[in-house]
Design goal:
Strand content: 25-35%
Oligomer: single chain
Structural class: alpha+beta
Bound molecules: beta-D-mannopyranose
Number of strands: 41
Helix content: 10-25%
Largest sheet: 6 strands, antiparallel
Radius of gyration: 28 Å
Distance between the termini: 68 Å
Length: 749
């Protein structure tokens, strides 16, 4: 296959005034107009409102190009769009080429017959206003979804958050966010390759299942058997050190001896093998497919047990406690995406001891480099399909559209070592069960068709080896208690949305918590740089700060929680800092509890890792990559070896308003969690201190904690004292270094 990128020499034409602006792929309406200084930075202050009218206009992208001779010589030439966002009509040299309406798909159009050979070609793409498309679709069919997003968003196969979310602006930009190219097929090409692994004692069998396109029958999928004898298919496997370790011809099985296994972060290393497949015609290579894979088994272990049913990632036969956060798109304006920024973000996950990450279903399917980085860094990816907080109208056209989207993305992503599971959607099983946004019975039926019939069928064909889970949260589907604390995963929002105190976390021992969170402000530098440098705006309840807060009255909510815990901050900067400490402390309180209950609970994935613009949100890293206090706390509470303390201060008897006869049971119960593959012998030291840190009592004990387990130490009763008079600090020592530490107060009853 030959490829010619059409990256440069683009023009964006504003149809209202005919003006043209130079552009290069990746490109979008808002970034081009911003870069040409036609509009201001859409994020700053309340510029979002200023620039929004632009998004009611249609725009045209044009590209003038000459075709490289070797492409022209091919039997079939396609125009390929890897990220066409979203509703578009395309023409080539004045002739209609096609219509597109899904940014999640790869669009290819046959162009051979329309190409000019001796003069420049002109490609034109009319991008229809995403707002107007949603408005029209909603007028025709008022399907409902989250009120944070623009009405009609669920009809458009465009990342939902672009239409607004409770951490996102209303900026449904449009453009070309991934490469555009001309593709020449010489007789045939490799469409995709499915690599299946069969692990046995000290060897891994690889079964290679390619699909092909021929130039004459494109876009029909062909298996190797469909090709005639002039074709040959070979595969070669290179180990992480670069040595070819196995080769095969004509789909003969491949065996890798003494495999170097891939592990998530914290359990081992991430060796990656390279598999290279070649398609030859009469002995000459005409196409090549090469990817990196990790040798591992990775699924979910679901087994009945004394509490209900387990739900845990199982990697190479071991169940691991998932530690991570939910990932949302990193940019509102997609051409601003940078691989280096994603790398830094994911490296920051590893610095904070994550072993997993959930790609939330209201964004878009991440770029290849995202999954490559997760492979390299050892982050197990929970991958949602792109449906969130809405019901959908499953017309035949919508079904065909999403089915093509599933196939494209499954083929693109399935080989990655880090792919832990596919998940049907975000939160819709629970919402549909409650009747939320449901306006007619067919929406309930369509829910079941989409996530419990169509998706499983597509996956059975294209990726039967990766675990599929119908929704997040779910207990396995069919509206069977999707939020059960005893089965499957849970989104727990009583803390924050339900205004309950952090101490509520201790009431639950969920099997796998895939969302829970608490907001904090981004750092002052981020506010100055991205929200407003004007001191007049530097007040939590200023108009501008409230514009950068998308969850109804949530700045007030932060203050409400804050006054339960801290004294009143003196200044805006102190307020920012206090909000971050509060967020860090609340989530730490939850995660430590869930890790202490390891075995029953097997995941604490907090909402949310990152932001897509400068905003107050649940993130632990802000839009500019600055860590909030929570991210520093995560490094501690996700440490492979964690010492934590369940402190108690129960009022047992003698209630008297003069406080004379109160009786408390004051106690600590320490716990060591070992999320590694080795047993650990460690020293636990705890100290009871007075308010000036003076040591009142100190004890030390050596314990051996088996691999992948949590060990409770005996409860220690402490003599009663006023809750403000004493606190306990504790440390965990391994080989003369302190690997975990903390303190508890006794102010929570
Ligand atoms: C969850 C998510 C998001 C949302 C977040 C915070 O429900 O799935 O839709 O942004 O909570 O409210």
């Amino acid at each position: 296959m030959k490829q010619q990128l059409l990256q440069e020499a683009w023009l964006l034409r504003r149809l209202t005034d005919g003006r043209e602006y130079s552009a290069a792929v990746p490109t979008s309406v808002l970034t081009v107009l911003r870069d040409h200084k036609v509009i201001p930075d859409p994020y700053y202050k309340d510029n979002e409102d200023l620039v929004r009218p632009v998004l009611y206009e249609d725009f045209a992208y044009t590209c003038t190009f000459t075709v490289e001779p070797e492409i022209l010589a091919c039997d079939q030439v396609l125009l390929r769009f890897e990220g066409l966002d979203t509703v578009a009509d395309l023409s080539l040299n004045g002739q209609f080429l096609g219509h597109a309406d899904n940014m999640h798909r790869v669009w290819e159009f046959s162009a051979k017959a329309l190409l000019l050979t001796d003069e420049p070609n002109k490609l034109e793409i009319i991008l229809h206003s995403a707002f107007r498309c949603a408005d029209a679709a909603f007028a025709a069919c008022p399907t409902r979804g989250t009120e944070d997003a623009w009405n009609g968003f669920s009809h458009i196969r465009k990342a939902h958050y672009m239409y607004g979310w409770d951490w996102g602006a209303h900026l449904p930009d449009s453009g070309l966010f991934r490469p555009v190219s001309l593709v020449g097929i010489e007789a045939a090409r490799i469409d995709s390759v499915y690599v299946r692994q069969n692990h046995s004692r000290d060897q891994v069998g690889l079964q290679i299942e390619p699909l092909f396109h021929t130039s004459s029958a494109w876009p029909q999928e062909h298996t190797y058997d469909d090709l005639d004898a002039a074709y040959e298919f070979t595969a070669e496997v290179t180990d992480p050190q670069g040595t070819v370790v196995a080769q095969s011809k004509s789909l003969a099985p491949i065996t890798v001896q003494a495999p170097q296994l891939w592990w998530p972060n914290g359990l081992g290393s991430q060796p990656l093998y390279t598999i290279t497949c070649r398609l030859l015609l009469n002995g000459r290579e005409i196409d090549r497919w090469s990817r990196r894979i990790g040798l591992r088994t990775l699924t979910m272990r679901i087994e009945k047990d004394e509490w209900g049913e387990s739900f845990a990632h199982e990697i190479n036969g071991h169940t691991v406690f998932a530690m991570g956060a939910d990932y949302i798109p990193e940019e509102h304006l997609l051409p601003d995406k940078r691989e280096a920024k994603t790398r830094r973000l994911l490296e920051d996950c590893v610095l904070a001891n994550y072993n997993s990450i959930r790609v939330w279903g209201g964004g878009y399917y991440p770029d290849d480099f995202f999954f490559d980085l997760c492979d390299e860094l050892g982050l197990i990816v929970w991958q949602d399909f792109m449906f969130a907080c809405s019901v959908y109208e499953l017309t035949p056209a919508f079904e065909a559209n999403i089915t093509a989207e599933f196939i494209d993305n499954i083929k693109r992503i399935r080989h990655h070592a880090s792919l832990g599971l596919w998940c049907g959607n975000n939160e819709m099983e629970s919402f549909v069960k409650e009747g939320e946004w449901v306006s007619k019975p067919s929406e309930v039926r369509d829910y079941l068709f989409m996530y419990e019939r169509i998706l499983p069928q597509v996956l059975a064909k294209y990726d039967p080896d990766t675990f599929y889970w119908p929704a997040s949260p779910s207990s396995g589907g069919s509206f069977d208690e999707p939020q059960s604390p005893d089965r499957g995963d849970v989104h727990y929002w009583e803390v924050w949305h339900g205004n309950k105190p952090f101490s509520e976390y201790r009431k639950y021992r969920f099997r796998y918590l895939s969302e829970f969170g608490f907001q904090a402000l981004p750092s002052f530098k981020t506010i100055e740089e991205g929200i407003s440098a004007d001191p007049a705006d530097h007040n939590l309840f200023s108009y501008i700060m409230e514009k950068h807060q998308r969850n109804g009255s949530a700045h007030g909510k932060i203050m409400n929680y804050l006054q339960q815990t801290y004294r009143y901050p003196h200044s805006f900067r102190e307020m920012i800092y206090a909000s971050q400490l509060l967020q860090a402390d609340g989530i730490r309180y939850g995660v430590e509890h869930f890790r202490r209950n390891r075995g029953r609970c097997m995941g604490a994935v907090y909402w949310q890792l990152n932001d897509c613009w400068p905003v107050t949100s649940w993130s632990s890293i802000d839009y500019y990559g600055r860590w909030k206090a929570l991210h520093y706390a995560a490094k501690r509470f996700f440490a492979p070896l964690l010492l934590s303390c369940e402190e108690q201060n129960w009022m047992t008897a003698g209630v008297d308003f003069n406080r004379q006869h109160f009786e408390f049971e004051k106690s600590i119960r320490l716990n060591v969690t070992n999320e590694t593959l080795e047993a650990k012998t460690v020293t636990v030291r705890w100290t009871l201190r007075g308010p000036d840190a003076v040591v009142l009592r100190q004890e030390e004990t050596v314990v051996t904690v088996p691999a992948l387990s949590a060990l409770w130490l005996d409860k220690v009763l402490l003599a009663e004292a006023s809750m403000l008079d004493q606190y306990v600090s504790y440390e965990l020592w391994e080989d003369n270094s302190c690997v975990s530490m903390g303190t508890v107060l006794f102010t929570h009853a």
